[in-house]
Specification:
Layout: H1 6-14, E1 37-42, E2 49-56, E3 59-66, E4 80-86, E5 90-95, E6 100-106, E7 114-120, H2 131-141, E8 151-156, H3 164-179, E9 184-189, H4 195-202, E10 210-215, H5 217-228, H6 233-236, E11 241-245, H7 251-257, H8 265-274, E12 276-286, E13 293-295, E14 298-302, H9 303-308, H10 320-332, E15 338-344, H11 351-367, H12 372-376, H13 380-388, E16 409-414, E17 423-424, E18 427-433, E19 455-461, H14 465-473, E20 487-498, E21 507-509, E22 512-513, E23 521-534, H15 543-547
Parallel strand pairs: 8-9, 8-10, 10-11, 16-17
Antiparallel strand pairs: 1-2, 1-7, 2-3, 3-4, 5-6, 6-7, 12-13, 12-23, 14-18, 14-21, 15-16, 15-20, 18-19, 19-20, 20-23, 21-22
Length: 555
């Protein structure tokens, strides 16, 4: 067993204020009153460095007790805090027969690198057994219900993120998985468009506990559509698909971790190791007699489809291409030609109602971290049925023109060339999603509650250019939805009829093009079909709406 790096040993043995955080520890911090502690020494140091590990709440305090130091009250040796390790960051703890402890953890932000501590236990026969402390530490690091030594399949897109996906897999992700002692890590590199579908069709889903996609959102779309074609589709969809952000579009990762941590590859790797299962909705998209598509992210028409597909050649700009595309469209302000029919959730809430519900939901999630059982167990009769069934997907909803005119449907007709009954209103775009974040700079659906069985549909009528530019400025915080002109619907399904007289138009499904020439299409929410994971057992992508005042009373 190798020693820790000399730099680590040197800093631990000579400095009493070493800390992984940006703020130094207090110079003289008394040891906490806590029975969960362990006395040990740093292996390989020339001077006598005695350490005390203390489990305090959700942290482990590493404290230094120098032999020959001043006595503290009660007769013990004086101690000083060196640094703290969040139990969330602990990857593994092992105890060898030679009284050696090996503690592996991720260092704090921004590096999050695997760090190894090798510690010697006292050889005295009168020393207390380390087993109770080590057991308590292991239970705190991997709470009940979180499986250790997971079997992980990594699917890596070599073209993702200008080629950084391969480097991330080899230099960042695999070292973390190895340090955590994962029992199986298999890596598949995609070689062509649609390879993700092929992998999903042939995959032995019983062989893995989680799939990690080292790419952007495109591979996730392919995996889900590969699962959908299988006779055991419902079983396949229960295998968590966890994003590792290595592409130009990382919306699922941002919705899970937030707009900052959502781009951290080490934290995404940690999520593979010890994430808490999250239930998520998916959508079924049908168009004529074509095979159904599965969408996990968004459906875009008009200006928003142009941002998604029309800026494809600008991928080198990263997320900034979406902002550039929106500014470009403020020049032409094109009206989307077609009709939109929405099956509203009843009773349909106002924006004030939605803000109140979100305020309560976020407050509850921040005050009470959800347990594994509460997040992984599907709720409701529909979800329980999905949990028990291992067969194919239920029959898709396919609608013909005019069938969406029944009770509970609202129809909007846009464009002078579009015929039919309904409320006439010229629209800039229609943008529907089931996750909070569309991109780093666009919190488009802050009221989204993954797992509730509803699609959030944003409809933007034509507005003055100044209003659209103001919306761009407030898009990253989510407060754009509070703009009076922007309509926000909760729907279980919707039906789109592109105007045939307007010629071909862009339609985006998770960033993939759908042909308007193939006619109308229907989108239906499939409640609780998908699974992913989050480090804290909640969706953190909407936190900015909470932090930046979007939920103030009276909004």
């Amino acid at each position: 067993m190798s020693l820790p790096p000399k730099s680590i040993r040197r800093r631990l043995s000579l400095s009493s204020t070493f800390s992984h955080s940006s703020r130094p520890a207090p110079p003289d911090l008394p040891p906490p009153t806590c029975t969960d502690s362990l006395i040990c020494s740093l292996q390989g140091t020339k001077t006598s460095v005695v350490l005390r590990l203390v489990k305090e709440g959700k942290e482990v305090w590493v404290m230094k007790r120098q032999e020959g130091g001043e006595e503290e009250e009660g007769g013990g040796k004086a101690t000083r805090l060196l640094f703290k390790i969040p139990t969330l960051h602990i990857l593994s703890v092992s105890h060898s027969s030679s009284n050696l402890i090996h503690l592996t953890y991720l260092s704090n932000a921004p590096s999050y690198t695997p760090t190894h501590l090798f510690l010697n236990l006292p050889s005295s026969s009168t020393s207390p057994s380390p087993t109770p402390f080590l057991n308590a530490l292991n239970e705190a690091s991997y709470p009940k219900g979180i499986k250790q030594k997971r079997r992980i399949l990594l699917i890596v897109n070599p073209a993702g993120g200008k080629g950084r996906a391969v480097k991330a897999a080899n230099n960042v992700i695999r070292p973390i998985l190895e340090a955590a002692g994962c029992s199986r890590v298999e890596v598949i590199y995609t070689t062509h468009n649609g390879h993700g579908r092929e992998i999903a069709r042939d995959l032995d889903v019983d062989a893995f506990d989680v799939i990690g996609t080292v790419s952007g959102d495109g591979i996730i779309h392919e995996l889900y559509n590969g699962f959908a074609a299988r006779p055991d589709a419902l079983k396949c969809f229960r295998l968590p698909v966890v994003p590792v952000p290595a592409g130009t579009g990382n919306s699922l990762s941002i919705s899970i971790h937030g707009k900052i941590d959502g781009f951290s590859i080490p934290l995404a790797a940690l999520n593979l190791v010890k994430g808490i299962p999250l239930v998520m909705d998916l959508c079924s998209v049908t168009q004529g007699d074509k095979p159904r598509l599965i969408s996990f992210l968004s459906v875009a028409l008009g200006v928003m489809a142009d941002l998604d597909i029309g800026t494809e050649s600008l991928r080198w700009m990263g997320d900034t291409r979406f902002v550039y595309g929106l500014l470009r469209n403020t020049i032409t302000m094109p009206t989307w030609p077609g009709s939109l029919s929405i099956k509203l959730h009843q009773p349909h809430p106002s924006k004030t109602d939605l803000a109140t519900q979100l305020r309560a939901r976020l407050a509850a999630s921040h005050l009470n971290s959800p347990s594994v059982s509460s997040t992984s167990a599907a709720k409701g009769a529909v979800l329980r049925e999905l949990e028990e069934d291992e067969g194919p997907l239920p029959e898709a909803l396919r609608m013909n023109e005019g069938e969406e005119q029944g009770e509970g449907w609202v129809r909007i007709v846009s464009g002078a060339e579009t015929e039919g009954k309904g409320t006439r209103e010229d629209l800039l775009y229609v943008y529907a999603g089931i996750l909070p974040m569309a991109s780093r700079d666009l919190l488009q659906w802050p009221f989204a509650a993954p797992g509730e069985g509803l699609i959030d549909v944003v409809v933007q009528p034509q507005v003055p250019r100044t209003t659209l530019l103001r919306n761009v400025a407030s898009a990253d915080s989510g407060s754009v939805v509070l703009e009076p002109s922007q309509k926000y619907y909760k729907a279980s399904a919707f039906h789109i009829s592109p105007s045939p007289s307007s010629g071909p138009q862009l339609i985006s499904i998770d960033g993939e093009a759908l042909s308007s020439s193939d006619g109308p299409f229907t989108v239906e929410c499939l409640q609780g079909l998908g699974r992913t994971m989050g480090l804290r057992g909640r969706w953190e992508g909407g936190d900015d709406f909470w932090k930046k005042g979007g939920l103030r009373e009276g909004k």
